Amino acid sequence: MPIQARYFEEPMTFSLAELDSHDPHWNKRGAIYVPSGKGPTVWAAGDVYTIKATGAQTNGGMGFIEASVPAGGGPVPHAHPEQEETFYILDGELEFLDGDHLFTAVAGDFVHIPRGVRHRFKNKASHAARMIFIFTPPGLEQIFVDHALPARPGEAPPSVIDDDQIARFDIMAGLAKSIILPEPS
Asked: Bridge partners of 43?
């Protein structure tokens, strides 16, 4: 069965028998490997975020974050006019706001928020929830790395928001061009 390759300068049609598995093209390396428990870890929005991949690492493809959201954690309602945000729940459950609609996402659920849509997530349970989220295009994950409070291993995020955290939040929101919005009425 012929295969059409579209990633070369000009489309080529060839059969699998014609492929040379020793061609240097197939041996090129480019994977990003971040072991479990590794990556810059910060406290933001009352949560613990471990940045697994930045836009610089993915050649502008995406920003990838692993999050632990403690009971009561999660950001205030906001919108990203320039980024889309995609979530995959690994453990627990989170209440999501989508525009003016609330729903609960549980382990195994996928949530995609288009740019410019008011959203937030909140952990209403009594135990931490875990998820991954992706920014496309990337950039917001680097803002967390550069400006959020570095997490201290073994410690929970601060339960009291102090002036330093408010200042960091204001800087991050400004750099991210995030629009902070009220809860729907």
From this structure: 48, 149
CA-angle at 62, arms to 57 and 64, nearest 5° = 85
Specify burial of residue 176 (Cβ count, 10 A radius: 0-12, 13-18, 19+).
buried
pTM for this entry: 0.84
Instruction: Quick: pLDDT tens for 90-140.
Output: 999 999 999 999 999 999 999 999 999 999 999 999 999 999 999 999 999
pLDDT tens digits, residue range 1-47? 455 555 556 666 666 666 677 777 777 888 999 999 899 999 998 89
